[in-house]
Amino acid sequence: MSAPGLPEPRTAADAMQQARTRIAASADARGEGWDALARLVEPPTAEVVAALRDGSIAGVLRGATEWLGEDTGIVAGPLMSLDVYVRSAGRRTPEADLAALEDDRAEIDAGAGGLEPGAVAALARPMRELAVLCHHEARAWSDGDLDQGKDLRARQRELADERLVAELPPVAKVLVDEGIANLTRTIGRLLLAFLSAETGKDYQRAVLGDARSRSRK
Description:
The protein is an all-alpha fold and 217 residues long. It is 72% helix and 0% strand. It has helices at 12-41, 46-53, 56-63, 73-87, 94-109, 119-122, 124-142, 146-178, 182-199, 203-208.
């Protein structure tokens, strides 16, 4: 079977080329996804709020998970919450959405949930490092360097295990437990969902269990 959008392969070489093209595209999309998540943990800005409200970040995150195939259920819940946010954006002003994120971040950076100041934004660095590795992997597959592509994929897993597995879950839990804005809590769940997809462990269940969250009135 050919990759979506590609002609049916006529030879084994065609099939291999299409497989490399598909893997490269998936790696690039994963890199874009980690870049988008890095934007969400950095201090809120009007530009990020605009990209959230118009659905562009949701689109990037959805594209970043297509490689999961039948396992996309891992990220389905948080992405659906993000879709709800997009659909309801017209009932709120961008300024109100930005203020809600800023208020939550200020409380969390002031010690809500026991995090060190700046702990949320600090996740952006390993996420961007992971994104760079994803894009390098995509180039390796495109160039036909299978060994390099596999090595870069392994390095991504190592980075996730060494940095994100330790640092991301407590941050995500505080965003979910202490966030007043629905979007803050959704971001926390997105972080756990993407870590689950990257590592194969269900961090959403492990970290959140059946915890309930507050909502902004």
